[in-house]
Predict the structure.
Amino acid sequence: MLEPSTSATALTTAVTSLLFSQTTYFAFCGSNSISSIDLSNAYNGVADYNIVAVGVLLFASNWAGAVWWCSAAVTLLVHRGDAKSASLAEKKAPRKIAAPVERQWVEEERARLLDEVMGPAKPAPVPASEVRREQERWFVYVAAMSVFIAGSLLAVMAACTALRTHLFIWTVFSPKYLYAMAWSVGWHLGINVGLGNLLWWLAQMA
C-alpha cells in the first residue's frame, strides 16, 4: 500500500515534468508542423551517412528542453526522498545536549580516540522499507507519465481513424501522428523510461 506522501510526491513531479516538457518544447520554437523541425543540428559532427546518428541528434536538438526536464524530474524525486528521510531520522534520533564551548575539544578528542581504537563508524544500512518506498515513488512517477502518454495516443489514433478519409489527412493528421510517435517512443520510452531508469539507478548507487 502506497503512502499518501509517496504517491503525492511522485504525482506532483510527474505533472510538473509533463507541463514544463511541453512548455519548453514549444518555447524553443517547436510546433506541430513538420516544417518547424530544426535540421541544422542533426548533422553536427557526422562525417558520413549515418541514419542512427542523424536521428539521435535530430531528436536531441528538437527535444532538448523535454530531455532536460526528464533528468530534473529524477533529481526532484531523489532530493525529496532524501529530505524526507533526513527529517524522519532527525525526529527519531534522540536529542543531544550541546556541550559547552570549553568542553568541545574534549568531545572531539574522545571521538578521535574512538576512531583510532575501533575504526570509523560504519554507516547504518538503509532499511528495506525505505528502499521499497524509493522504488514505489519511481514506479508511481513512470505510471503517471505512461497514463498521460497512453491517453494522448488513444485520442490521436481515434481522430486519425475517424478522419481517415478527410482531405487533410496527409497534411494535418499525418504530421500529428508522427509527433505522437516521437513523444511516446522517443521521449517517453527512450528518455523517461530508458534514460530515467539509468539516472535513477545511478542516484541510488551513489
